[in-house]
Amino acid sequence: MSNTQLTVPFAEAMTRYEPIIGLEVHVELGTNSKMFCSCATTFGASPNTQVCPVCLGLPGSMPVLNKVAVESTIRIGLALNCEIATWCRFARKNYFYPDMPKDYQVSQYDEPLCTNGWLDVTVATDDGPQVVRVEIERVHMEEDTGKLTHAGGATGRIHGADYSLVDYNRAGIPLIEIVTKTVIGTGPLAPAVARAYVTELRDVMRALGVSDVRMEEGSLRCDVNLSLNRPGAGWGTRSETKNVNSLRSVERAVHSEIERQAAVLDGGGRVIQETRHFHEDTGRSTSGRSKEQAEDYRYFPEPDLVPIAPTRTWVEELRATLPEVPSVKRARLQSTWGINEFELATLVNAGAVELVESSIAAGVDAAAARKWWTGELLRVANERGVELADLPVTVSQIARVESLIADGRLNDQLARQVFEGVLAGEGDVDVVIAQRGLAVVSDDGALLSAIDEALAAQPDVAEKIKSGKIQAAGAIVGAVMKTTKGQADAAKVRALLLDRLGVSE
Amino acid sequence: MTSAAADLIRQSASVLAAAISEGEVSSVEVTKAHLARIAAVDERVHAFLQVTSKAALESAQAIDEKRKSGATLGVLAGVPIAVKDVLTMRGVPTTCGSKILEGWRPPYDATVVSRLRAADLVILGKTNMDEFAMGSSTEHSAYGPTHNPWDLERIPGGSGGGSAAALAAFETPLSIGTDTGGSIRQPAAVTGTVGVKPTYGGVSRYGLVALASSLDQAGPCARSVMDAALLHSVIAGHDPRDSTSINAPVPDVVAAANRGDIRGLRIGLVKELSGEGYQAGVLQRFNESVELLQGLGAEVVEVSCPHFDYALGAYYLILPSEASSNLARFDGMRYGLRVGDNGSNSVEQVMSLSREAGFGAEVKRRIMLGTYALSSGYYDAYYGQAQKVRTLITRDFNAAFEKADVLISPTAPTTAFKIGEKVDDPLAMYLNDIATIPVNLAGNCAMSLPVGLSPADGLPVGLQIMAPPMADDRLYLVGSALESALTDRWGHLLIQEVPNL
Fold this sequence. Notes:
The structure holds 2 protein chains of 2 kinds. Chain A has 3 domains: 10-293, no CATH class; 326-436, no CATH class; 444-501, Orthogonal Bundle (Arc Repressor Mutant, subunit A). Chain A is 38% helix and 19% strand. Chain A is built from 17 helices and 14 strands. Chain A has a 9-stranded mixed sheet. Chain A has a 3-stranded antiparallel sheet with strand order 4-3-14, with no helix packed on it. In chain A, a hairpin with a 4-residue loop joins strand 12 and strand 13 (284-290). Chain B has a domain at 41-51 and 71-257 and 291-306 and 395-497: Amidase signature (AS) enzymes (Alpha-Beta Complex). Chain B contains 17 helices and 11 strands. Chain B has helices at 3-10, 13-22, 27-45, 53-68, 111-118, 161-168, 185-191, 225-235, 253-259, 280-295, 311-326, 347-358, 361-373, 380-403, 426-430, 437-442, 472-490, and strands at 48-51, 80-84, 122-127, 174-178, 194-197, 218-222, 266-270, 299-303, 406-410, 445-453, 460-467. In chain B, a hairpin with a 6-residue loop joins strand 10 (445-453) and strand 11. In chain B, helix 8 runs antiparallel to helix 9 and helix 11 (311-326) crosses helix 13. The longest helix of chain B has 24 residues, at 380-403. Chain B is globular. The model of chain B has no long low-confidence stretch (mean pLDDT 96). The A-B interface holds A 53, 56-65, 92, 94, 96, 98, 101-104, 158-159, 164, 296, 298-300, 303-306 and B 87-88, 94, 96, 101, 104, 106-108, 110, 205-210, 212-214, 240-244, 321-322, 324-325, 328-331, 333-335, 346-348, 351, 371, 374-376, 379, 383.
């Protein structure tokens, strides 16, 4: 890896070149069983425990297609406005590699299940939001390979490794490949368009419920194809950047590849057709396998499987199961919840939209639901490095806390302590309240004596308030909250204080 | 060997099954008689790669106990059987006749094997074959050739020479073969036994180590048409583990074999599968059989299947193409032979060295042919064209079956040739399957049965009956009629004339 990779600053590169991008996204379907056998697909199981003769490709074993995988693929195709083939086949992609049990991958080649679709994405520009239509070339099915871990050696790759370990748990998990047509004319928006496309695609998959689409676990992977050309000139040579493992990286990968290719072209060089590996830490890519001599995969129709011929009735039945398009849904939520674009973006980025929706359905006020999910709970999720949805808190617990606040039995500060207890596994809402003794002090007598104590301690403040400087009341309220360890209703303390001093707002 | 044991090994499977179910003889006695026969003659015949004596006797014992307990048994309960070494059997070495699979013990049973077990048959072991079923003489086995019991210097056919020779040597009354281009039928023809390639999809391929997935089919091998029918009914039928398996009732082959009445049946002689290239002795016995069939009331018509002339060419593009992919997994990484893993070779080098050492010359030849035929830029001219020929051959069959209920031809152009005679001439070897290949390409079904000894060399001649897809019962109808007419003429089945070993 060269540490002195030449680059041209992005803005400058954009004055001389036009980028053309193409995105290949792999999505692991969240089916219970694998593509061609009944093995489980649970992520993170001990190596080689979710395997059988079929996904190990043992001699004599034969694949049987998972119907749910076909259904999911058709639904994805429909959600991406594709045509669904009336008849198509699997093909074998032949190449030798130890992560492939059969030394061929069952995939689709010239007969994909879904073709010719599109997805509209929105990017922010100086002139406001702009909608870009990304055209989809094809959506096809294939089986995932096993996972190799290379031990020893400097590069972490198979060459130079002391030995390699292979885990076939992943082999045979249904994989969907979504390939865009070339995206042209986006200019300096190319990095943002790429990111917006993958984000939108992720949301579509999530809404369809076909995959958990977690880039960090590899259930959504993106390869970025990019070439540069001078305006009016023919298309340049493209590179393919792999190992792009987050939405942010999609954007950075496009950005840095434009800077790199511009430097190559400026220097009179030639962009090499190759695979590049993106590095999250540096934000740059390094050269991988050259693709100058295209590998010959000797595709031919898979003779162990029969053709797929989805009837139009079935396709229409599946169309009827499609959820609301995420972009349409966002517009609807924005207007129902009365929030602006920025607030919605916060919810989307936090992965909180569905959680807020279901909290509202459980009786929580819309503003309160947003406040909890994008405030305290998001803070804890980030701290723990998990998805919001994975926090051990339920919408009914949020509903319970909110109803206690409404009854004046909890305040915000206490509610935060309740969630802290719930998230720490101390039990349900009422258990945590009881165990931690978290009830609002509602005994007027106790509050009044605390107020008197605070007034006596700060006679100057008492005088200020009496003279009409009501804003000074905060100091006394704060002192009372402190002595009651936060278990008082601040509004009530304030009312009692003003009453005690005989002033009014 | 006692005379009682000698009697047992010469009996048909149906007679043995009846005797076992009546309690006249136990499955253990029958099994022991066959194991003793194997011990006595297999050193010379070499039909077996593995004899699983202990497991065989244990299952025979269990079946005898099951019978005594009054439980219902299958029609072939207690009868021994041998299985071609291309089908997986849990815990038993499965080599496919190749060094590259040496030492591999599959963790699962092929569906055919499970069905044999479920029907209470006793599995004696695994039979020899050409490496990965590539060959017509069993000379391409990495473990040495099998010898034809009619003349030990001659080949028993291939690739399933072991399964056929074991029958002719009375080492087993039944066996399982697999047929990709004739590997059940041609060995049956040259050993004087009966072999059937069922309709493609009629018998599950799950656990059959694939040579060419779109052509492979397992089927029954026996010494009589009725025995083959009984075995056919045990192994056939839909299997959800094989996507290409047909989900429809199995034709009633046993009833057809019992009926054996062919009055009014139209039998087509395929013009292209006769004449030049066929030995005179083979044609003589074939022509006599045609007369016999006419005498039994069948109407004989001549049909033409013009595209059969291209069958061999198409076959030797499709088969190697699929085989080159199917055999890719034998790379020394997960099971079987691994060569060159010395810490300095790369993974590619170990794969390459393992394949170099593990595969024989014929396997390498076909892998190279297939790799070439599938290559970018050649695919359309080779694999693509071959698939078109395949369609034309299917159309030829469809047209012929408009005119005739079954078609017939000699099974193989010659009788058994000498070991070593054609081993260095691949084209001459490939021509053995000229009459059997069209059926594999079209996916329909066919049977070979013995119709006499060639006057030229005194060796068995086979006749092939071909029927439309899922009309496997017609094979047994015609086969049983012809077999019974020939038996009437000879006073016994042809196999009884095999010389004493």
